[in-house]
Design brief:
This protein is α/β, with parallel strands linked by helices. The strands form 4 sheets. It has a 9-stranded mixed β-sheet with strand order 9-8-10-11-7-12-13-14-15, sandwiched between helices. Strands 1-2-3-6-5-4 form a 6-stranded mixed β-sheet. Helix 19 runs parallel beside helix 25 (638-657) and helix 23 (583-593) packs parallel to helix 26. The chain is elongated and about 100 Å long. The relative contact order is 0.09.
Length: 757
């Protein structure tokens, strides 16, 4: 991350957070031209003057100036978080053609563009068939290689590096940055491909004498090649600094950018967009070709990274060929080519490779070694998502987003039992540290509830193909209109009391206020969009019919509600006309307007922002929290009491901070927040409907979890069923009575509560 002093002051919390995650930050004093790089300390107690976080923010200019003379130490909460040292200020921009009077002539540009000397000509990918359709690797820009696991994506940057560094006539210096790939593994891959020896046998230490001789024969080329490796797990800024030290550098290879956050790996997780910007700027400023391998073909993440050109590499049917599709930002797919895979030597070929004989010892190791080199199972990349338009085509065939939906969400490999064990282990550790004091332990657990639940969510998604941290851009209606104002989405939050014609019939009946346990916890099972929200007209404006496999927000005209004994499912909205509601509220309205209920007309849908959806995204986490809550209640101990409050804090804070919140920087999905909240309101309305069907009188419905009923709620059952409709208890499926009262009429339309004797 590069920032001027004013930018750093405005985004200081983000700067500190990036440093705590292992990323480097360059501070530039645009007036003096001085710059300092802040990086995590190499030892726990680094030497140098201490600057507290608040002091550093106020005196950034002095901090940068002091760093010119020696290392400075930034502390957060008294703990050393980063060291600041002198560095060269990054260039401010790329050179521009000469212009006169503020404009540039086409002829002048033509002269510039036709100059294609050795320093400006593009580099080969190492695959002639791909060079013919893609024009090689352009200097001055970043090429992103997006490949699903096990498709062989690492072979393409490997081949580009070999082609440049081992060119017998004019070798081009190459910098190879390793992230998540051990140095020896990368070196073996290069040597195996260049010396034409089987990688599996090389990795197993089982080369035959002839194969060892082949490596020895290539030793001269290997030793003299201008190819350098960075230190393991570099930051993007480190790569840029190392690149500045290599004379005549032509190619930078980054192997790889990892979609899922990995500890102590800066090029992973949500730091990728910033890293790609630094790499793109490096390419432009130094006129280099930069190639970065991304370990996923997730179309949403690829689009978010914003590379000028992307090479999508897949391995159809896990077969002997690779399909490479060339796409450009704003232009879409340009071309595609299919080439042969030589997995024995880790190369891409224009022709099918001849089968190589395998020694007996190699045959036992070839399959796993090749798999380790190439990645995981191949999945074709989702088609490019159009910028706008309806999600369904006229012939009702699936849209690109819908087509990728089923492959985007996979069953989590993190078991519920593992998550529960982690929750309970955390409670035991904190309670022990607090000396058995429940109040102190609960306070500590509540402080860490947000990062803890995010860690649980990440563990629950292990193995899933959709990364919940890769949030797409949201439409304007999902952004706050002002700092203290809400956005345009109506959640249908109930605040309803029955009208006088209903209350007058109660007489002296007892009213019980029921508390619905774990309302937000149950609402985590909502239909959540998992892709970029796409705008399209609703069915009442000529758009496609409502698709139950998609979710989002909708502009509707709600139907009239003519049932005084039941709350309006749209909530207590006073303003008439169109409103933006969530999928949760729309589905409730559609059910109530259907033949089974027939309570209202169908809502008119005018516009929608939707994407492919799933109910399973938070399911493993939800089930784990439910189980941990159940175990805590059954324990009837200090540990159980602390665990109950801890679980409650985790799910409630998860919902409340997943929107625009400074307390949770790992999840920014305002649409999910609205959907989950309105799902809780819809669930409460459904309970009110069940109570009405069972002969109870609904007196009030408030918030997410409060239902006031008149009648014998303990024996009430759904029609045709013997089980209680409202079992009493503290389980998620049960309710707790929180107040019992009678209503006394004091004037026309006015009532007061009095104690029920």
């Amino acid at each position: 991350m590069d920032a001027t002093l004013s930018q750093a002051r405005e985004q200081w919390s983000e700067v500190v957070e990036r440093l705590q995650q292992g990323e480097e930050v360059v501070l530039v004093n645009s007036k003096s031209g001085q710059a300092a790089v802040l990086r995590p300390p190499e030892r726990p107690d680094p030497p140098g003057p201490r600057w507290s976080s608040s002091k550093a923010r106020q005196e950034l200019g002095n901090l940068v100036a002091a760093a010119q003379d020696g290392a400075q130490v930034l502390t957060v909460g008294g703990q050393p978080t980063a060291t600041a040292s002198r560095c060269t200020a990054p260039p401010t921009g790329r050179p521009q053609p000469d212009s006169t009077g503020g404009v540039t002539g086409l002829g002048d540009l033509l002269d510039v563009l036709l100059e294609a000397g050795p320093e400006t000509a593009g580099l080969s990918t190492g695959v002639p068939a791909l060079d013919r359709v893609a024009g090689g690797l352009a200097r001055g820009s970043l090429t992103l290689i997006a490949a699903p696991p096990n498709a062989g994506g690492s072979l393409l940057p490997l081949q580009a590096a070999r082609t440049a560094a081992f060119d017998p006539e004019q070798p081009v210096p190459v910098l190879y940055a390793l992230s998540g790939v051990p140095l020896q593994v990368a070196a073996r891959r290069l040597i195996s491909a260049e010396a034409s020896v089987p990688y599996a046998q090389f990795a197993a230490g089982a080369l035959t004498p002839e194969q060892r001789q082949a490596v020895a024969g290539a030793e001269g080329r290997l030793r003299s090649a201008p190819l350098s490796f960075t230190r393991p797990e570099p930051t993007a800024q480190t790569i840029a600094e190392e690149a500045s030290r290599i004379e005549s550098l032509g190619l930078v290879v980054v192997d790889r950018l990892q979609r899922t956050r990995v500890d102590n790996t800066p090029l992973s997780g949500r730091t990728l967009p910033a890293a790609v910007r630094i790499l793109a700027r490096l390419a432009a400023d130094r006129q280099l070709a930069v190639v970065a391998l991304l370990d996923t073909d997730d179309a949403l993440l690829v689009e978010q990274l914003g590379a000028d050109r992307v090479l999508h590499l897949t391995r159809p049917d896990n077969g002997p060929t690779a399909r490479i599709t060339v796409t450009a930002r704003d232009l879409g797919t340009l071309s595609a080519v299919e080439v042969a895979l030589d997995m024995t030597h880790l190369r891409l070929l224009d022709h099918a490779p001849a089968p190589a004989p395998q020694a007996p010892v190699a045959s036992r190791t070839a399959a796993p070694a090749a798999g380790a080199a190439a990645g995981e199972a191949a999945v074709p990349p989702p088609a490019r998502r159009p910028a706008a338009g309806p999600p369904r085509r006229a012939d009702n065939s699936p849209s690109p987003t819908a087509g990728s939906r089923t492959s985007t969400v996979a069953k989590s490999s993190g078991t519920v039992a593992e998550l529960v064990e982690r929750i309970e282990g955390r409670v035991r550790a904190v309670l022990t540290k607090a000396g058995g004091e429940v109040t102190e332990a609960v306070a500590q657990l509540q402080k860490t509830a947000i990062p803890d639940v995010m860690d649980l969510l990440e563990q629950s998604r292990a193995g899933g193909r959709y990364d919940f941290r890769n949030y797409p851009d949201l439409p304007e209606i999902l952004h706050k209109r002002a700092r203290q104002e809400a956005d345009a989405i109506w959640e249908a939050r109930p605040r309803w009391t029955a009208p006088p014609e209903v209350l007058d019939q109660l007489g002296d009946q007892v009213v019980t206020a029921l508390d619905i346990n774990g309302a937000y916890l149950s609402a985590l099972k909502a239909h959540l969009p998992i892709g970029q929200l796409e705008h399209h007209l609703g069915p009442d404006e000529g758009g496609p019919a409502h698709d139950s496999k998609r979710s989002g927000v909708h502009l509707v005209t709600p139907p009239e509600w003519e049932h005084p004994h039941l709350p309006n499912p749209i909530g207590d909205r006073e303003e008439p006309g169109r409103i933006w509601i969530t999928e949760s509220t729309l589905r409730l309205l559609l059910r109530l307007s259907g033949p089974k209920h027939g309570l209202c007309a169908r809502p008119l849908i005018h516009e929608s922002w939707t994407s492919g959806s799933t109910e399973q995204l938070l399911e493993s986490l939800r089930r784990a929290l439910v189980q941990a809550r159940t175990n805590a209640l059954a324990a009837q101990s200090a540990e159980g009491e602390a665990a109950y409050e801890y679980v409650k804090a985790m799910y409630s804070k998860l919902v409340s901070t997943m929107g625009e919140s400074n307390y949770n920087r790992d999840l920014y999905r305002t649409d999910w927040m609205h959907l989950i909240r309105s799902q809780a309101f819809a669930n409460l309305w459904h309970k009110a409907w069940q109570a009405h069907q069972a002969g109870l009188t609904v007196v009030r419905m408030m918030g997410t979890d409060e239902l006031h009923l008149a009648g014998d709620w303990r024996t009430a059952a759904a029609p045709g069923k013997d089980t209680p409709l409202f079992p009493e208890g503290r389980e998620v499926t049960a309710v707790k009575p929180k107040q019992v009262y009678r209503l006394e009429k004091v004037a026309e339309g006015s009532y007061r509560e009095r104690e029920a004797v």
